[in-house]
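Dear colleague,

Thank you for sharing your sequence with our group. We've completed the structure prediction you requested, and as agreed, I am returning the results in plain text so they can be pasted directly into your records. Please verify that the sequence below matches your submission; if there's any discrepancy, let me know and we will rerun it promptly.
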Amino acid sequence: MEDLTVIQAKRFGIYSCPTDTTLLQAAQTMVNEDISSLVVVNQNGYLEGIITRTDLLHAYHQYPHWGDQLVAQLMNKNVVTVSPHDHLDFVVSRLIEQHIHRVVVVENENGSKRPVGVISDADLLYHMVRKN
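Please find the predicted structure tokens below.
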């Protein structure tokens, strides 16, 4: 697995939403697509943040009208990112060091980050098993 890069290991494409998406809309997308997070993008398609199922559960627990709030209000803006050319061992290190389950794969465009994929701990486990 240490020789594989993100671009070799991951099918690209992401589920994303704009910053003005409501939490209810985000939750519906996650349920309908059977995914655990949405990458939040601005009007130009550049990375703004990420929202996860856990974030939605926290919102449900804290706010009576959680579903009306916007993703921009609760998204994590400190997104851990990797390049399509990073090796999977580097991704594993990032997940462990940051205590997270996924990283966003980005390509840099004129100082902005365009999300092109997400690689998760489940993706990495798949490659760990395939290696053996």
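Summary note from our side: The longest helix spans residues 23-33.

Kind regards,
the structure core
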